[in-house]
Amino acid sequence: METVYLYDGSFDGFLSCVFDSYVYHEEPLHFWDQDSREPTLFSTRDIPTDPAHAERVRIGLGRISPEALWLVIRGFLTCAPDREVILFRFIRRLMVRGRPLLRQLTDDTVFPLRKAVRHLEGEVHLLKGFVRFSDFEGLLAGEIRPKNRVLPLLRPHFCDRMYNETFLLYDRAHREALVYRPGQWAILPMESFRMAAPSQEEAQYRRLWKRFYDTVEIRERHNPKLRRTHMPQRYWETMTEFQGEDYFRPAQPEVPGSAPLPGGSAGEEA
Amino acid sequence: MDVMDKLTILTDAAKYDAACTSSGAQRRHRAGAIGNTSASVAGCCHTFSGDGRCVTLLKVLMTNCCVYDCKYCVNRCSNDTRRALFSPEELAELTIQFYRRNYIEGLFLSSGVLVSPDYTTERMIRCLDLLRSRHRFNGYIHAKAIPGTSPELVTRLGLLADRLSVNIELPSERGLNALAPNKSRQSIFRPMGLITNTLRQNKEELVKYRHAPHFAPAGQSTQMIIGATPDSDRHILSLTQALYDKYRLKRVFYSAYVPVVENTLLPSLDTKPPLLREHRLYQADWLLRFYGFRAEELLDEEDPNFNPLVDPKCSWALKHPAFFPVEVNDAGREELLRVPGVGTVSAGRILSARRARRLDHEDLRKLGVVMKRAQYFITCKGKVAEGVKLHADSILRNLIAAERAALPGTETEQLSLFDRAV
């Protein structure tokens, strides 16, 4: 009989589904979380999230190979449209074949999973460079709109790089944020986030960066296609150098006699 | 002059430098310090400029004032252009603030020659020292060693920077004498050799004493200008190989000459930069570094230049029909790497996947092999892919057609070249 599993969308929830599929001896057709539920003619089964069950699946996978567990964890973060089905098929096959399956890169259960994970890791790699922070009186804030859920994989990179800073990185697509202050981090759901208008100093650094970006191009070599190949246009939305004029305007108009700006004439060489 | 103007002038003057990498140094964060260096082997690109080149570092000159008069250079003393000079404090502050906002991976500091090479290098050292000691900047720094600088200063520079580079500028001594009268072959190779030796000594010291200071942990690189002098690709590639072998360089960069000045010794101002030639040289450079090729295999006296129509690996393959076809299920890594369309990653995947079962053509596609090139040179389980004709002429024609869309240069140019070849 063909069944659709309904679960809460969490990783533990998904692992509970895997556990229960063995209990009920069935191979579910789909896994729907709260957002993707729709009326269906198939029979459905509500799977409660049970941390103990999830833990048993986790241990089982790790026992076969730590790499397998690592693949499943990453696979769950990808944006593959039927990632649960891909993962489920992979896990079922893995339980039968064991560790050698991991090397069979062309296998029908391994290939889609590896492909999705490669996409995720590619996006993580690009975003390590493309994230832009703004300084709000010492607190750094940035926004991204990735396809995959990249925050858990960006976390080690940014928490190490910005070890002594306090920052927030908001994922618009999945409505969650990575928040960090020295020695402490968390990834929290956050419904919405709007960045405040920049201070004088922040606006000036944005302008300086924009100027640097525009100047560093060799015009004789202009090649927009190559640029889009390396840096797909969907990332531009949150990058400083592609923002409109308003982005570079400070919150308050300039007050004469205020603190010197980074672009001011201070620091002229003697 | 404010920082905005200085940044504009000194970026504009530095943009012709090709090197922009951040790989090779792996440093984690330190308490109280700012930043780390990228753990990825590929480095980290922060943006791509309108010409499609990666921007990783804040690439600026300390000053574009220069006492030298190199004919090909925008900053030569006889050129009438606006001059500027960063104060160490300004540049350090700019680097830190850009770095915190994740605009950049670090600083690339080069400079025109102010007064003398030693004087200039001392100023650069002052700036880097300020960044490292006062601002406790722990990110990536690439510094240029200026030919003619005294050895002690180069050593001090190397202790502050992650990577050092000395630009060869022109691939031959003849070109150098004609176009860069103030530089000599010797003045370029002396600091390069010095850096190579210091790197070797430093490696030994680090084995003995864990806390010995690191000298340029990301090694050294160089760059040469392509197309300003009549040197052949063969000459350039042999030089590149010698630099990798003898000086242990991490990278050799090529920079297609962009005509910036009118001079009888140089290509005229309306010459287009030889982008396709630069592209072919980079492809060959990769073959030297990762694919086990030697320069003399790729080019010989009869063919001293690369075929613009097909990439160097394809042209090697077409000249060595006896080497092919390669049976993917039995060939070793070195053999696989010589097949056009197979890269280091896909070769690794083939080796892994074929331990599970013998591979066919469809599997190779999944493993990331570029079949439109590879299909002419491989067999799977003894079979050639269906519908593939192994006739030298048609292979060449198909390989040219397969690559044409991705090449730099205009379509019309490519088409006319194509017609001539057939």
Taken in chain order, the helices and strands of chain A follow as EHEEHHHHEEHEEEHH
Number of strands of chain A: 8
Order of helices and strands of chain B: HEEEHEHEHEHHEHEHHHEHHHHEHH
Assembly state (oligomeric): heterodimer
Of all chain pairs, the largest interface belongs to: A-B, 59 and 69 residues
Largest sheet of chain A: 5 strands, mixed
Read across the widest sheet of chain B, the strand sequence of neighbours is 3-4-5-6-7-8
Give the amount of beta strand of chain A, in percent: 5-15%
Gyration radius from CA atoms of chain B, angstroms: 24 Å
Shape of chain B: globular
The CATH architecture assignment of the largest domain in chain B turns out to be: Alpha-Beta Barrel
Helix content of chain A: 40-55%
CATH class (first level) name of the largest domain in chain B: Alpha Beta
The figure for the number of domains of chain B is: 2
CATH-defined superfamily of the largest domain in chain B: Aldolase class I
Largest sheet of chain B: 6 strands, parallel
Strand order across the largest sheet of chain A: 4-5-6-7-8
What structural category characterises the helix and strand content of chain A? alpha/beta
Helix content of chain B: 40-55%
Which structural traits does this protein have?
heterodimer, A: 270 residues, YefM-like fold, 3 domains, B: 422 residues, alpha/beta, TIM Barrel, 2 domains, 6-stranded parallel sheet, globular
How would you summarize the topology of this molecule?
The complex is a heterodimer of chains A (270) and B (422).
Chain A: E1 3-6, H1 11-23, E2 30-32, E3 43-46, H2 51-64, H3 66-77, H4 83-97, H5 110-130, E4 133-136, E5 139-144, H6 151-161, E6 166-171, E7 176-181, E8 184-189, H7 200-216, H8 224-230
Parallel strand pairs in A: 1-2, 1-3, 5-6
Antiparallel strand pairs in A: 4-5, 6-7, 7-8
Helix pairs in contact in A: 1-2, 2-3, 3-4, 3-5, 4-5, 5-6
Chain B: H1 3-14, E1 47-48, E2 54-55, E3 57-61, H2 88-100, E4 106-110, H3 117-134, E5 140-144, H4 151-160, E6 163-165, H5 173-179, H6 185-208, E7 220-226, H7 233-247, E8 251-256, H8 275-290, H9 295-298, H10 312-319, E9 326-327, H11 333-337, H12 344-353, H13 361-366, H14 371-374, E10 378-379, H15 392-404, H16 411-421
Parallel strand pairs in B: 3-4, 4-5, 5-6, 6-7, 7-8, 9-10
Antiparallel strand pairs in B: 1-2
Helix pairs in contact in B: 2-3, 3-4, 4-6, 7-8
